[in-house]
Amino acid sequence: MRRRVAGAIVLLCLLAGLSGCAAEFKLIQPIDALMRPPYEDREQEQLERKLAELQGQEKSAGSQMIFRHPQGGAFRNAVTMRDLNADELEEAVVFYSSYQGLRPENPPLRLAVFVQRKGEWQKIFDTEGDGSTVLSLSFPRLHQGQEGILVNWQKESGEQCFSLYRFGEGQKLEKLLVQQCTALKICDMNGDGTDEVIFLQAAGTETGALPKAMILGYDTANEQVYLLENDQQKQPLDPAFYAFPALEPLPLAGGGNALLLDACRLNAKTAQLEMVTLLLELVEPESGSKSLAVHLADTNTARSLPLPVRDFDGNGSPEVPSEYILPGSLLEDTVNHTAQPLRLVRWNRPVQTETGWALEPLTDAILYLSASHWVQLPAALASGVTVRGTEDGQVRELRFYRLEETGATGGELFRMSVVLATGVPHNTMLTEEGKAAGISLEFLQEPKVDEGGAAFPAATLRRETND
Questions:
Q1: What is the rounded CA–CA span in Å between residue 59 and residue 67?
Q2: Is the pTM for the entire model greater than 0.85?
């Protein structure tokens, strides 16, 4: 540890030389460094703190340098220690900006890599960044135990791209590729021990149309880019898709991962916004290039609520939500004078069958009151029951009735009132999280006993956590 901290002094001097004016250098503490992100490694924290402590020892007013931190991801330090080339020695990956005189509003961003040799830090790589902000830093697994450096950048225009760097011949660090992207995920798709980089990219626009999107992948083992394959034709995604809020790995039984992609679009028939889920699987034919096949595109994953895929049951694998309409139900909006059926949500587990991918129901009869609060209704309400309801933007009152085999509405079972405004009425069945959010649930009429003699169990309000 002493060796690493002592070598940090030499590393600071080398960092000073990055600006080209080593004699006139002043290390200053940026404002964003005051809100320090969490550290993974105590030694890494001490190394960066040691560099920051030296800022007052340089008195000249020449070149200035500030550390830059990734905004998200697992690695949020300006200095990240990592063994990139499997030589059992850690390299230091550094993000920084340097400038002369007054600090510009957004100084140029740079990436540098240092290695410690014989107790001294030596710079082995220094390049201008491909964006003005570092969104995330990651280290995909390459062949022969090596790791790459993958930086997700954001440009001043708001567009995103990523750059991938690795050690090449002669242990020289080099940039492999730069690609524009709107979504990005790194995972081992085929279980070979190396990672693939899956990303979405705009594929051009048409007059009066939204940008199309193309799914691409980068095979880090073979350094090969492959495209989406849909119905044996490589083509862009549905041009109606305009946003992709989630891209999550789905572990496969035989090793590797598929990917679950959430996409938003405008339903041409209903003129309503909806979200659907696609399943992406790596296709590796005996001859020809790899590609990504799309599954679940025609299944009932469309939903009006903005519910992304997530690990709903906590088993370490994401599930897919879908909506269904309770037969004969009707929910009237007394403010806008509209009416629509009541939609319930079921969560599904993607499974591989002999005929391909399918969705296996995991839960049923879930009523979402908002994107984060939901009620698990009794299983008996999943069928043989219908609902009439009203809402005025603050209170939603639902009346549950028995649904006869003829389709006629039978006797009333119970009522429940959902208050979406601040304030909690008396006699509510509500969690503390629900109270804080101003959502409450109240039974206006006790549930009646069904024909079998058993009462419907009470529904309870639950709060969704996506952390």
A1: 18
A2: no
